[in-house]
Structure prediction request, 798 residues.
Amino acid sequence: MRLEVLKTYKIYIGGQFPRTESGRYYSPLSKTGKKLANVCLCSRKDFRDAVVAARSAFAGWSNRAAFNRSQILYRMAEMLEGRKAQFIDELILQGATRAAAEKEVHLATDRLIYYAGWCDKFQQLFSAVNPVASSHFNFSAPEPTGVVAIIAPQGDALLGLVSLIAPVIAGGNTCVVLAAADKPLCAVTFAEVLNSSDLPGGVVNILTGKPEELASWFAGHMDVNATFYCEKDTDIQKMIREKSADNLKRIHFYDTIDWYSDKGQSPYFIMDAQEIKTTWHPVENIAGAGGGY
Amino acid sequence: MATTKKPIRSKKAAVAKTNSIKLKFDTGWTYAPAPESKSAASINKQYDLFINGEWQKPESRKYFDTINPATEEKLSEVAEANAADVNKAVAAARTAYDKVWKKMPATERAKYIFRIARIIQEKARELAIIESLDGGKPIRESRDFDVPTAANHFFYYAGWADKLEYAFPNRKAQPLGVAGQIIPWNFPLLMAAWKIAPALATGNTVVLKPAETTPLTALKLAEIIQEADLPPGVVNILTGAGATGAALVNHPDINKIAFTGSTDVGKIIQRAVSGTNKRVTLELGGKAANIIFEDAPLDQAVEGVINGIFFNQGHVCCAGSRLYVQESVAKEVIRKLKDRMSSLLVGDPLDKNTDIGAINSKQQLDTILKYISIGKKEGAEMYESNCRLPNKGFFCRPTLFTNVAQSNRIAQEEIFGPVLSILTFRTDDEVIEKANNTPYGLSAGVWTDKGSKIFNLTKRLRAGVIWANTFNKFDPGSPFGGYKESGYGREGGLHGLLPYIELTS
Prediction:
């Protein structure tokens, strides 16, 4: 008989897999009360390191051609499809039935492909050439907000995670994500998918730990541009609103969205982490020729 | 002191500005041949028709040769589809449309198209070699432009398949049915991609006819479509010449005709479908004006003009074939152009150093030579580079005409070869009038350092694509198509979906 080699579940910062700087761990349990793993209990300092990594990755990622970002998101879907079995096993460990686990992995893969397609298309829907009255060429187009701090849904451990990350990075942002506290296994494995998908390090950083401990840092950090939260906890929502006022973070609460439904994906999720930039340019008006024919 | 020195300074400046030192290229340095290997490509001896997901013998029982225009050697022979073959292909496309493709969830449709894009990427080298062998274009262009852009086009439109409800707010996008698509020989694989990708993404099925001189990459694409496991009949590829195209256009069960080619044939198609409900989009000829103002960065502009007219041997519908130069810089621009032309390498399309490959066919070479002699007869002054041409195959030196009048045929008619007509102008008004004085309206170029002038020109030029301080740029996300007799409908981008859908409320 051969002894099984157990996987160490670490966090993902700047394209590396470190342990938490705090040295702490917690042990989420399966439905039957079996210990899933010893998982990093991330601290405020881990979050700070992750924000530094996300900020450094922002310039490179947001300057990539939109088409290139779409190729990379598609590659992520290919990698996820290839490791389907592992994700299904982990979802089952975390309490899903086999059928539900399969469905979740399939949907998560298709969702990545869905957003891969949007990378170079949403701009065409949300941009405008504005017919100003003066002789100017005037246009508005979306640009990424910057670093987005995401507290992933606590329920749909893989689909929720992918549904939050994909639109944010499709639009050229970078992010720091806190995985579902009780179901962190597939989030860490998803980091391995990201790591093998040509996604530059630092674009997505994944932490494990407790939302109640970390949410205030997600909302308060002065180098974070937007914070997304997915639970109905009104105390935490109030705290996020307050803290985010310090640097006017864009905040979105996705607390009523069924990630399994069609409402779980749309280009409007991309727009939640976009700014609109308007450019004015003079148009010379010196020739009488009108180009009549 | 200062006043006595002044004239000397300005004289020096004048010398520096005209930069009258001629560049010399006839040194001892030559390029060693760097041919791409043919071994990375496999071409069958004979190709049948791709109908209903399988290779079928033609009802016509006829095959015709496709040759390498650089060597005049036979590459393969391909089936000639007749009306009965067109019938079979349209029937297969109809069945696939009714039974499979229009019912398939859009997400799944998208995944098929993504697969095609990926397999094109995987086989990019082979496709580039075959494109250059069959069509004569330099391997550098087929490798770096045609094939990657074709893959990207499939990739781009794949993503639209399940997002159409966002593209057309308040309307429902419905497919049209079976699309008959006819493409030219200048960008064989790329044009196939431009046609097939948006049609499939919007839920239509396709019967495509590649040009008779360049069928091979379309047939390779058929193999890729098989490999991608696309349901049978969704894409059918029929080889043949004009008669095959006519049978396709006139087939009663076709819902849409998409044609890229000459304006003459475009007009025939529009007449042919009168009295039917067939939708039509046409991407036809052009005679693009490329306009250089005196404040333009001239070296950059000269590169742009060279690329604009000599890219793909000038076999480009949007080629910048009329150059308008502001008088004050005309002499300098013409000299720089001649210098640059003498550095262009004409020869073996498979050589990685080659700038200008083979003219696509004997027939096209004859057309180009006819126009060169017309230009001379009309009184324009011809200049051609003095490069050596290969002994075999169809080749043409890069050529320009100066002293061209607006009314000359070489300034009015599409030559579709490496021949540039140069005219001059003094004012903005004049150049706008002259540039627009053509039945065509596909593209135009503007070269100036002044942004506000660019936008003035882009507003007044009557053409579907305007390049400012660049030329011949293409992207799957950017709509392409013409005004006036350059056709109608757009390919690329969000607007490229419209030709393949019906909008219902």
